[in-house]
């Protein structure tokens, strides 16, 4: 069906650095925090209270490491390793668990032997199924994204609607361009994101 209106293509774009207020906005244009989580993250951001290098468990090469989220709480390290090893040789794997109960937190990190293997998993494992759950796969933004604030401090990216704290700019929930903006297509912007985030290896 044709008509006289404009044909609107829903374009997306991704954050290459982190700012709590921007991450709380679906189109990245907010100028004030809209929930308590964003306010908490902004305080940490402005005061420089979070240092990713201070996480003793964040070991390995961040340029070869992926974040794997939305895992079933029944998924074990062995299962995660079995599935993710389809894409390359795994050097290190960490399933994040509750410090007291030992229960899975539903996400983990997988380090591959090479960046090439990591990129293959990034492309092919996203939205695959593990133990009946559709997973998300993204870069290890904790160590690579300037200004990063984790979800436990009100930051992070993604999230579910039920939580009331959606965060935008990542692979799972990219920014949606305002209709008046003329932005590049998703695949092209995704390449730009990759260049900006993982293309800055410091040797």
* Gross CATH architecture of one domain: 2-Layer Sandwich
Shape: globular
Low-pLDDT runs: 1-9, 179-200
N-to-C CA distance: 55 Å
Helix content: 25-40%
CATH topology (level 3) name of one domain = Alpha-Beta Plaits
Largest sheet composition? 4 strands, antiparallel
Please identify the top-level CATH class of one domain.
Alpha Beta
Order of strands in the sheet with most strands: 3-4-2-7
Order of helices and strands: EHHEHEEHEEEHEH
In CATH, what is the homologous superfamily of one domain?
RRM (RNA recognition motif) domain
Rg result: 18 Å
- How many distinct beta strands? 8
Number of helices: 6
The proportion of strand residues reads 15-25%
Average residue pLDDT? 81
GO molecular function, one term: RNA binding
Subcellular location: Nucleus
Keywords: Nucleus, RNA-binding
Protein name: U11/U12 small nuclear ribonucleoprotein 35 kDa protein
